[in-house]
Design a protein that fits this description.
By secondary structure, this protein is an alpha/beta fold. It folds into two domains: 2-183 and 371-401, 3-Layer(aba) Sandwich (Rossmann fold), CATH 3.40.50.2000; 193-368, 3-Layer(aba) Sandwich (Rossmann fold). The protein has helices spanning 16-30, 79-88, 103-114, 129-133, 136-152, 162-171, 193-200, 222-229, 234-237, 249-261, 276-285, 300-307, 321-327, 337-348, 351-368, 371-387, 397-401; strands spanning 2-6, 34-40, 42-43, 46-47, 54-58, 61-66, 94-98, 119-122, 156-159, 177-179, 208-213, 239-244, 268-270, 288-291, 312-314, 330-332, 394-395. A hairpin with a 2-residue loop joins strand 5 (54-58) and strand 6 (61-66). Helix 1 packs across helix 16, helix 2 (79-88) runs parallel beside helix 3 and helix 8 (222-229) crosses helix 14. It is globular, with a radius of gyration of 21 Å. 45% of the residues are buried.
């Protein structure tokens, strides 16, 4: 079986979608599936330093990079990519696209349909109510003319949570929707991570570390988090907040100014983009994780925090929140300041609660978000699509309607 994954960019600045695509393909290849990626050399404001027009080994994954023509948010057209699709798409058994409302997945799906190649589309949360409100008029036009017909011709719509499948149904998607979560890549345990983290950033040994690990973007609401921590007394709660991620320079400057005017700048560290051992130390050395996002279809960073044994504080708009709530692996709090002040204060002052939720978090990640099991289920879906069998992971509207009341 030969599978091509298509997405507009593999820039690490885009966060979760890039990690998800690379790890999905890596896990499939571990099963012996010939999976590859086709994308552009986009790196937001710049370009990735990679050869284009040929296959390269990119972090252990075979990737075809092609030159982008321009960048209109995530649309990113590429003439080279289009020409390559026309010449080579028929060599693949299944096309698996990631992202909506952008060029590469759209043209791949249209050509796959033309060549009678089944394709699966991962919506990455772009059909949530919040996401559809951004650039609303453009998306309405694109949906009517392109996206909705393209989705309805798909062999399956790949959703990572049942809430994401419900979003697809509300959007009017008639194609089968499958629910298969993403996984967490296993990382080596860092000895004395807590001490290493505190030594590196000159923090007291008893200081509680809160981690925000994501893009610094309005959707993720790091400004909200700073306002919440401004209401928690640094000496009483003895905290230090890490905002780990990159973002637009102007927005990052505003966040730093907010920390300063809120008089908590000494208790906040902006790390910028981190990866590798630095990321492992930060994850394993922190005490809890916080993400007050407006919208997350899954939240790779949340799953990474769970795997590291961190209790998480998230909004209900992070769509794996039901699993976290059921496992008592953290606190799910609506995005209002008073609720977040109370929730964070509760965890910061109770080491027993942090420990209990952290153990539950790690267990949840091990049971539900491990790549070997997830890749097996995805490979099964590919086989079912090719043999035109019913999809075992299909999510139906009746499942939505038959949910037990809580």
């Amino acid at each position: 079986m030969k599978v091509l994954h298509v997405l507009p960019s593999l820039s690490y600045k885009l966060g979760g979608p890039t990690q998800a695509a690379l790890n999905t393909v890596r896990a499939l290849r571990d099963l012996g599936i010939d999976a590859e990626i086709a994308t552009t050399n986009d790196d937001e404001a710049g370009l990735l330093s990679v050869p284009t027009g040929c296959q390269v080994d990119y972090n252990g994954i075979p990737v075809w990079f092609f030159s982008r023509l321009a960048r209109f948010k995530e649309f990113i057209p590429s003439a080279e990519l289009t020409q390559w699709f026309i010449a080579h798409l028929s060599e693949y058994d299944i096309i698996h696209t990631h992202y909506l409302f952008c060029y590469a997945p759209t043209i791949a799906a249209k050509l796959a349909y033309h060549y009678h190649i089944p394709y699966i589309t991962r919506t990455i949360g772009q059909l949530s109510p919040w996401a559809l409100q951004q650039s609303q008029r453009k998306k309405q036009i694109y949906s009517r003319l392109i996206e909705r017909p393209t989705l309805n011709r798909a062999a399956a719509i790949h959703c990572t949570t049942s809430a994401e499948a419900e979003d697809a149904h509300r959007f009017g998607v008639l194609a089968p929707t499958i629910v298969s979560p993403l996984g967490v890549k296993a990382t080596p345990v860092v000895a004395n991570a807590s001490q290493q983290l505190r030594d590196r950033y000159h923090l007291p040994p008893d200081c509680k570390v809160i981690l925000f690990l994501s893009r610094l973007h309005e959707k993720k609401r790091p400004d909200f988090l700073l306002n919440v921590f401004a209401r928690l007394h640094p000496k009483i709660h003895n905290y230090h907040l890490f905002l780990a991620g990159d973002g637009d320079t102007g927005y990052c400057d505003r966040l730093k100014a907010l920390a300063h005017t809120s008089k908590i700048s000494k208790n906040v560290t902006f790390t910028g983009f981190i990866s590798g051992i630095d990321k492992d130390i930060l994850l394993q050395g922190s005490d809890l994780f916080a993400l007050p996002s407006h919208s997350e279809n899954f939240g790779v960073a949340v799953a990474e925090a769970l795997a590291a044994g961190l209790p998480v504080v998230i909004t209900p708009d992070v769509q794996i929140s039901p699993a976290i709530q059921e496992a008592t692996a953290g606190l799910v709090v609506p995005g209002y300041s008073s609720g977040w002040v109370s929730a964070l204060g509760k965890l910061l002052t109770s080491s027993k609660l942090r420990q209990k939720m952290g153990q539950n978090a790690q267990k949840l990640a091990q049971e539900q978000y491990n790549w070997p099991q997830i890749s097996l289920r995805l490979a099964q879906t590919y086989q079912e699509v090719l043999s035109k069998k019913p999809l075992s992971l299909e999510y139906s509207k009746s499942q939505q309607n038959n949910k037990p009341n809580k």
